[in-house]
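Worked Example 4.2. Consider the chain below.
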Amino acid sequence: MEHFDIIVVGAGIAGSSAAFHLADKGIKTALIEKTHPAGGPTGRSSALTHAFYLDQALSKLSIRGVQILRDIPRLTGQGKVHNEIGMMWACGAEAEDAWKASARWIASQGSRIDILAPDVLGKMAPDFSREAITTLLYEPDYGYADPYGAANALVKGARDRGCRALLNTRVTKLVTSGGKITGVTTEDGQGLTADRVLVCAGVWTRPLIAQAGCDLPIHVERHEMAVLDAKGRARTYMPFAWCDDLLCNYARPDGDNVVLCGTWAGGGTGIRHQSVKRPSPVDNPDIYKEGLDDEESVHVLSFLTPRAPRLTELGVRPGYAGLYDMSPDDNPIIDRVPGVDGLYVVCGS
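Applying the procedure from the previous section yields the following structure tokens:
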């Protein structure tokens, strides 16, 4: 039975990055993924990048994480995965003071973020309504990432550094002995031993960690993404990545041909807006409705078109839904698992 210093479970962006950096330090690492890199929530995320949060710890994590995305070509020899089209935030009078204070702190950390008056929107996106906006925050060095490209590049980089990557391999059991993790067992009965195990299994994390006697406060939500057909003019209609605290929407171009649109309830940057219905809970992440019907797409777009009415000129493509593992306060859990020496977890959104 092969022994490793550490086993990483899950090859989403968290697991693939962890495996890369562990292998880069010469640590004997195994990475186990049930399908392929970014095959779960990572691949269906909105992939927006930004440093702006109201929590300083989250901003620090994000600044470091996006720097890794920018460095992927240098670190792995693979192509560019980060698109610096700018990230624009809009808020009203109620949130203005807290948002400005957070922006000033982020700028003090060396991350570019500009506090702008609403009339700037008339120059950068003249077709957008400025109604009720009192402050804009603009992060010119952020935008969005290619989640598939990023995860696959990091997994390749990890392999190049000696990591053993087992894809299409599902971990079914965490093996413990005497209050310590000793390895994992996979669906085909294969056993791997390790001194430590890091579980980054996204929406499949809670039942795995439950085997170690810890019931994580995590639930799974289905998040909807409407897709608009921009026919080579996506940046004309959506010139930057966008998030609107007032009308509870976000959007970004995806290349030249489509604009992706979603509803946003304030998770991670403040109090969750009650005007946006909590996304549908999902009991079984292996079986859920992956596509959007027309009614769902229209509902998502109804949050965005009052702000950007020209989007109604675009045709609607089939939308899609991704799953998110969510904590009660919308923030991540990055910690040791209590009661089991050597077991760690990264989960929650």
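DSSP finds eight helices and 20 strands in the chain. The radius of gyration is 21 Å. Compare this with Example 4.1 before moving on.
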